[in-house]
Amino acid sequence: MKLAELAERLGCRLEGDGTIDIRSVASLDDAGPGDVTFLANPKYAARLPTTRASAVIVDENTKAAPCAMLHTRDPYLAWAEAVAILAPAPRPAPGISPHAAIDPTATLGVDAHVGPFAVIGPGCRIGDRVVIEAHAVLGAGVTVGDDSTIKAHVSLREGVQIGRRVILHDGVVVGSDGFGFARRPDGSHQKIPQTGAVVIEDDVEIGANSAVDRPSVGVTRIGRGTKIDNLVQVAHGVHIGRNVLLAAQVGIAGSTVLDDDVIMAGQSGSTGHVHLGRGARVGAKSAVTKDVAAGGHVAGIPAVDLSEWREIVVLGRRLPEIRRDLAALEARLAALERQLK
Asked: Each residue of 83-96: pLDDT tens digit?
């Protein structure tokens, strides 16, 4: 692809030779002739003068580079689009493996791919151009929207609804039983049947080995455009809004509500029945135990406002010093009391 064509497709302003052939993408350090790279984080600016790339995607303020420049307001977004253009993910050819098990009442759309040893249960409805990889299991009545990808060893339990352009990575389980038990008088536990629904809306991506549980009643819902990392637990009856980001090992307890645009960093979590308002952010390894207002930024265990958490951290580091000072003051006070007697 000519650099000028790439610039046009990315909506970038080209500075340099538009006739250069661009074949691939690479990092600043690894790029060579024929590659396009990018600079989005200023901390890597010192590497720009030594790059061997044929072109670099930069912001509007970058003045010089040893190669052609593609100027844009958001280099990272443009880079993501360039990768999609120049290094698209491989897609298996349409067709059904002879080793797949498909119930005769299931329906498949045009150009679907079903890999070996995949199981598609009765009454399933699979959309056009859906990819279902090896060993995936779809229970009775599952629906999968157009252009979605179900990776290997994914389990979609009965009645789960998957939207369009959804990506479920290897080992994802959707619709497993929520953790619900009632305590008997003798101390044993009565299982509460989990018969509710799970709905995954359009353009959601869920990382490897994550789980989304069904509730006893009602719906567990993940809103359009939400992106979930690996090893995330979404419990029964949780409602997640649109364009939410959940990093690795996040855990969300039952009946919690996350409004649109919430971000939860790695290994953070929430207790049940709390509400995180639109645009709220939760720091890594934090535990949310009460509602977070829209736009709030919390951190710590239990999670508090970020400014308060920073003060707690600073004071925590000073505790040995404060303890020594307090001991010295107590000693001086004791000496004065002895003098007054």
From this structure: 999 998 888 999 99
Low pLDDT (below 50) residues in the chain? none
Catalytic residue among 113, 236, 239, 275: 236
Residues 6+ apart with CB under 8 A from 153: 134, 135, 136, 170, 171
My answer on whether 247 and 153 are in the same domain is yes
**What whole-number distance in Å separates Cα of residue 301 and Cα of residue 159?**
37
Give dist(CA 111, CA 181) in Å, integer. 43
The answer to whether 236 is a known catalytic residue is: yes
Same domain, 58 and 192: no
Same domain, 171 and 273: yes
Number of domains composing the chain: 3
- Are both 335 and 212 inside the same structural domain? no
* 117 & 223 share domain: yes
Nearest CA to 219 among 194, 196, 242? Answer: 196
> What pLDDT sits at residue 316?
87
Picking from 76, 286, 173, the residue whose alpha carbon sits closest to that of residue 262 is: 286
**What global pTM score does this model have?**
0.90
Alpha-carbon span 284 to 19, nearest angstrom: 46
- Per the structure, the complete domain to which residue 328 belongs is given by 314-341
- What is the reported pLDDT for 227? 98
| pLDDT score at 77 | 96
